[in-house]
């Protein structure tokens, strides 16, 4: 039983019998946009209310966890949990810094170096070169 053949597409880089070799397509990142196209301007930075509306779920979850710890363990338990969290953040930072330095040593482009998960805390991010450095809301990884 024969399989139906699918039509072959012409390869844009392969020479044709009708004329000269066509030029390969140019990617948009290779230079200026094609005629008639306008690149959109970069998005303006978020206002404080815009940031709050985007990250409200994280803040509510964090507040709920703090409230539960306070309810069951009191102020003393909350302080102890904060000390443990700070120690865990130090361990995570050293671990992630090892990954970052190894990547840079091997000439790998690192787009983001983050201490934690989720969006950055306002005022706790900056860009140096190609890398965005940030401290995120949930400090359990990077």
Characteristic terms for this protein:
flat; about 140 residues; three-stranded mixed β-sheet; alpha+beta; about 15% strand
Instruction: Tell me, rounded to a whole number, the average pLDDT.
Output: 79
Fraction in beta strands = 15-25%
Question: Helix content range of the residues, please?
Answer: 40-55%
Sheet bearing the most strands, described? 3 strands, mixed
Structural class: alpha+beta
| Count of DSSP strands | 3
Order of H and E elements: HEEE
| Quaternary state of the chains | single chain
Rg computed from alpha carbons, rounded to a whole number of angstroms: 26 Å
Q: Which spans of ≥5 residues are poorly predicted at pLDDT below 50?
A: none
Summarize the structure.
The protein contains one helix and three strands, in the order H-E-E-E. The chain is an alpha+beta fold. The chain has a domain of 90 residues.
């Amino acid at each position: 039983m024969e399989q139906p053949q699918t039509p072959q597409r012409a390869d844009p880089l392969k020479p044709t019998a009708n004329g000269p070799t066509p030029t390969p397509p140019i990617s948009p990142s290779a230079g200026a946009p094609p005629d008639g196209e306008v690149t959109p301007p970069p998005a303006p930075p978020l206002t404080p209310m815009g940031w709050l509306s985007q990250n409200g779920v994280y803040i509510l979850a964090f507040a709920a966890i703090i409230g539960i710890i306070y309810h069951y363990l009191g102020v003393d338990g909350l302080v102890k949990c904060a000390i443990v969290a700070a120690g865990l953040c130090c361990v995570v930072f050293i671990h992630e810094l090892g990954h970052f330095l190894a990547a840079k040593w091997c000439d790998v482009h690192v787009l983001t170096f983050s201490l934690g998960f989720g969006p950055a805390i306002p005022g706790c991010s900056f860009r140096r070169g190609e890398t965005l450095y940030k401290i995120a809301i949930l400090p359990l990884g990077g």
